[in-house]
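User: Predict the complex with 5'-deoxyadenosine.
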Amino acid sequence: MDKAEILAALRAPEGEALFAQARAVRAETKGDGVFFRGLIELSSVCDRDCLYCGMRRSNAAAHRYAMRDDEVVACARLARELGFGTVVLQAGECPALWTRRRVAELVRRVRGETGQHVTLSLGERTEADTAAWREAGAARYLLRFETTDRALFARIHPGAPVGGEHPRLAQLRRMKAQGYAIGGGMMLGLPGQTLESVADDLLTLRELNADMVGLGPYLAHPGTPLGRDKTPSGVPVDVDFTCRCYALARLLLPHANIPSTTALSTLDPANGRLRGLSSGANVFMPNLTPAAYRADYQIYPGKICVVAPQADAIDALRADLATLGLRQVTG
Ligand code: 5AD
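Assistant: Here is the predicted structure with 5'-deoxyadenosine placed in the model:
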């Protein structure tokens, strides 16, 4: 697939043929299995000031929390009880809180005490940090590059270099060399974003040979500068467009693990998560963050809890999967 074909698929009046093609490829590479990954949001403290994110440093209205290590391990135990296989440890970017040593120790504890695989999502970190965590047993890292449009990236990330290599693409390449399975991706519908740049984002995922793809709609947060920015986007913020991007990611990277994201379910609480699976996604990431903290991880408003971490809510999710001829697999 080249850029012209990707653009044609993004602009086509109807998406269903593309979705069917993506489902067929997923059936070939993944069978009928869907992975569940337990998302644990470690802390809402963040050093960064990204213009779109409700957890940005300058948002004085945001309430900040940080989980204790024993709470994190308890969440990972719950993931094991629910048959998940993997936990994703995600946090606002704060190396002072999540030091190299602390994260390495936490990874060892989660691996040793629960047997869960660990995916890290802790933002832009040094090569020495990610090397230590790989050594401790973390094998996967998620870092969205958000957009490959360098001018747009620089505009929404204060302090980001304007020239040279994209800092997040550079980190993803470094981590690939360190032996990580890497996940990249973008937001859709940013002010000033173009369809052409989304096509470039998709081609970049293939060029990176991404093992995982994280992409979803941009949801404006009124407490942020970008949330108040009325600049139009050349990219729609809707379920159909997001699903087209899942389908194209599936065609470009047949073996990738692609979650149907929380942001998509927030756009369409009734059908979003299943529509993601109907367009080639193969992963759910139920939120296992303790209820006391969950509301404070407000990267965008109205962030829905895909499922409560109770066993019967997970059962309901499994029943949903069955309606599509899919089933939960552990891994
Ligand atoms: N809307 C949608 N997604 C967002 N993210 C951050 N802020 C928003 C927002 N307002 C996404 C970014 C980030 C991930 C953790 O959450 O892509 O990488």
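Strands lie at 33-41, 86-90, 117-121, 140-142, 181-184, 187-188, 212-213, 216-217, 283-284, 327-329.
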